[in-house]
Amino acid sequence: xxxxxxxxxxxxxxxxxxxxxxxxxxxxxxxxxxxxxxxxxxxxxxxxxxxxxxxxxxxxxxxxxxxxxxxxxxxxxxxxxxxxxxxxxxxxxxxxxxxxxxxxxxxxxxxxxxxxxxxxxxxxxxxxxxxxxxxxxxxxxxxxxxxxxxxxxxxxxxxxxxxxxxxxxxxxxxxxxxxxxxxxxxxxxxxxxxxxxxxxxxxxxxxxxxxxxxxxxxxxxxxxxxxxxxxxxxxxxxxxxxxxxxxxxxxxxxxxxxxxxxxxxxxxxxxxxxxxxxxxxxxxxxxxxxxxxxxxxxxxxxxxxxxxxxxxxxxxxxxxxxxxxxxxxxxxxxxxxxxxxxxxxxxxxxxxxxxxxxxxxxxxxxxxxxxxxxxxxxxxxxxxxxxxxxxxxxxxxxxxxxxxxxxxxxxxxxx
Length: 415
What we know:
single chain, 0% strand, globular
């Protein structure tokens, strides 16, 4: 399943870059087994804890806030091996998932442990990009980065059906115990298999000097694109199961509630090949061009998905399928474009910048969705779901436009 993560045969870490990227994908996968557990069980939590749309949005989005607060520390990966941060990140995931299982009994306690999970996410996902960058040849970095990031849906998709099955068989707490165990396995994997390296040296500068980033217009463009991509993606992922439950109830002769977790898993999973394809297309035809096009197409689908719950079933299914094909297509290419545009020695700062953009989007997306949903009719209203999805569509379309405006001149020429 992780063969798509393979990169080139050269590496500076003592192992082939194929094995390095495969190891990093395995590390990521073990840390993501609980990624969508809360989104999957959100309808249950809304009923059990009497949550409003805004509270439900915060329960999903708080990870983005705590990630945003922790991510500035990632600039230290220009001086300190990213491996150390990965080890701390896995421990935060162990505490966050296990604490949620043992102690969450309402909105505030659940929010606290979801916040700790956000710290774990900050110390694992984008830190992995820096770990790869420090261990691989310059010419292979964009492609290896794209493949690692594009493995995200492969790794995270299983969390939906796993959470649903464990909650059904053993209670909802079990859906958080397994991710705690897998995060500990990820800790052992990195501890014993990933060798320490010295980060690539750059020009002497302050660790928090963001000048190399903010003066780089292509990087700014890709950063804004990453933010808006995360707004849409995390907004959709946080609310998709709840929306599918609502939409299925609109069709009296279409009883598929039992299949929604599996269907959601497959929808997330099928975004992986489009993400791989997007990354490869960016390397061939230009990162900004491909990123902007994919974001705009995804946004157009998002404008109509929510309203389609009132339309013929086949239209709804086509829109859901199309949206899920494109919502992840820009994931690998937007990050690879930023890596390609970054100056040597500032990649730790770049990773921090892109990670902040992703984390902030992960906060804004779910909360924005919940706010718009409550303001336009609520979770029992087709109009509410329609405008909530549309708000994400407008966001990602604007992100694609900014990427094109700021980064198109840095596009790599076709090979």
